[in-house]
Write a structure and sequence with these properties.
three-stranded mixed sheet, globular, seven-stranded mixed sheet, about 290 residues, alpha/beta, Spore Coat Polysaccharide Biosynthesis Protein SpsA, Chain A
Length: about 290
């Protein structure tokens, strides 16, 4: 069925504006070709002239007068309030590349009765090595590219040697397969039905507005994919030792929610096949998490 969409696009800061125009919007515009209903874009920006990129779409420009820690969440909360009942809302960002299937895949899940679609956003430094980031690639191709040029943050989240002090995502791999177990997943799209809200960030608890059986978690590498272009210099704190089951349990029980633990039980194929058992240690981790 044709479905109406409201797209949240927060784009500000010189570096992020350049990244969005050069690498991200080309992929988003291709993915939007699958949208056959009405489409509105809400652009939160410090450069209103960017609106010309989106012709012939209906664009509402929200010009920023200041930036702060809560600016992104405030912009996303405003988009939630602007959405009409029954409208699908997509949360994009200036540094996110979409696979070509993103909107088609989300519409398919909404037609199946889901009200939210959440997925991983794999970090990459790929544009350092490529003249341009890929646009129009399939989900599996895009995920493979992110792993070929994985950000150091991702490399420090690989089990069992990773030392990342923020184990929100943990990668398990063997010779040809990569499986992700993630506490934090990005709500790519939700259906506006009733009041929707969240606390500090949409990744934390927006999907708590929906029963778990109405939340589709993208686990298939051929479904859809998002890639986050992260500056190579960005770092997260490291532990003085490889992350342990006890540390992971401590971290999520202090900084996560019950829904995050439910997400971690899902096996997300990043590369290869779901037939691998390279992520078997994740079940033991989850036992410690749930027992802590």
């Amino acid at each position: 069925m044709a479905r109406d969409w409201l797209i949240s696009l927060p784009v500000w800061g010189k570096d992020y504006r350049k990244r969005f125009v050069q690498d991200c919007w080309p992929s988003v515009s291709i993915a939007l070709g699958a949208v056959h209903g009405n489409l509105r874009i809400v652009l939160h920006t410090d450069a209103p002239e960017l609106a010309r990129l989106f012709r012939p779409y209906d664009v509402c420009v929200k010009e920023l007068t200041h930036e702060g820690h809560s600016t992104l969440s405030a912009a996303q909360r405003e988009v939630l309030a602007l959405a009409e009942p029954g409208e699908a809302i997509a949360f994009l960002a200036a540094d996110v590349i979409c696979s070509r299937e993103c909107f088609a895949a989300a519409e398919r899940r909404f037609d199946e009765g889901y009200r939210a679609v959440v997925c991983a956003g794999t970090r990459t430094v790929g544009p350092i090595f490529n003249a341009k980031a890929p646009a129009g690639w399939s989900a599996r191709e895009l995920l493979g590219w992110t792993m070929d040029f994985a950000h150091p943050i991702v490399q420090q989240c690989v089990y069992p040697h990773g030392q990342n002090a923020i184990p929100s995502t943990i990668y398990f791999r063997d010779d040809s397969n990569i499986i992700l177990r993630a506490f934090h997943l990005h709500p790519f799209a939700v259906l506006k039905q009733g009041k929707l809200d969240f606390t500090c960030t949409i990744d934390r608890d927006l999907v708590d507005s929906f029963p778990l059986d109405q939340v589709h978690v993208v686990t298939d590498a051929d479904d859809m994919a998002l890639a986050e272009i992260t500056p190579i210099g960005k770092r997260q704190a490291l532990l003085p030792y490889a992350m342990t089951h006890d540390y992971i349990a401590w971290w999520i029980n202090h900084y996560g929610t019950a829904r995050h633990k439910q997400f971690f039980a899902r096996r997300i194929v990043i590369r290869g096949s779901a037939e691998t058992d390279c992520d078997k240690p994740a079940d033991a981790i989850l036992e410690v998490v749930n027992g802590a």
